[in-house]
Write a structure and sequence with these properties.
The protein has 2 helices and 10 strands. The chain has about 190 residues and is of the alpha+beta class. The strands form 2 sheets. Strands 1, 3, 5, 8 and 10 form a 5-stranded antiparallel sheet that branches. A 5-stranded antiparallel sheet has the order 2-4-9-6-7, with no helix packed on it. Strand 6 and strand 7 form a beta hairpin. The longest helix has 20 residues. It is globular, with a radius of gyration of 24 Å. It starts with a helix and ends with a helix.
Length: about 190
């Protein structure tokens, strides 16, 4: 009985030793629906500005507008949205609802606003392929809603990352356990 426990512990050590850490991934694709409230100053009507890591370039969603972001792979939470308001957050409140989707079916997972330039973090669980932001900013003449600099989510473990190699000692331990099993069978 001790032999089976030892084999189970060795197998668990091998599996845990090879698990890769999850990483933040940023949007690689965007499908933007503009309702005509976005001007072209500061290149705010360029959807490509919302892709990749935060870089101070942005896409304005437009009042009531929305954008669907994809990441080149499925993902999970937590996530973060980075917004630009040129340092006047108190002068103009901007907000958006956040939806996560898989296969075209979406569920609301939270809300974001322009309270922090460092990014608004939102938590959620599950596996998704699309993140949707829908502007909910109050109407103010001359304004164009939530500005997206970047959107990040969490890559699923063991996807999009390089596997962590097993240490040589773990391989030797596995070989030793297998050898002990073979010897035990021969004796029995």
């Amino acid at each position: 009985m001790r032999y089976k426990s030892f084999v189970a512990a060795a197998a668990a050590a091998l599996l845990l030793g090879s698990a890769a850490q999850a990483a933040t991934i940023y949007a690689t694709g965007v499908d933007w629906t503009n309702n005509g409230t976005v001007g072209s100053s500061n290149d705010r009507d360029n959807p490509l500005n919302a892709l990749g890591e935060p870089d101070d370039k942005f896409l304005s969603l437009g009042l009531g507008g929305q954008a669907d972001f994809t990441f080149g792979e499925t993902f999970t939470g937590p996530g973060a949205s980075y917004e630009i308001t040129f340092g006047n957050r108190a002068g103009y409140f901007e907000s958006a609802d956040v939806f996560a989707g898989i296969g075209g079916s979406f569920s609301k997972i939270g809300e974001v606003d322009n309270a922090s330039a460092a990014g608004f973090v939102f938590s959620f669980a599950g596996i998704f392929d699309t993140l949707r932001l829908v502007d909910t900013s109050p109407f103010v003449a001359g304004r164009d809603g939530y500005d997206v600099d970047a959107v990040g989510v969490t890559a699923l473990p063991n996807t999009g990352t390089t596997p962590v190699p097993l240490p040589a000692s773990a391989l030797l331990l596995g070989a030793g356990v297998a050898g002990m099993g073979a010897l035990r069978r021969r004796k029995g």
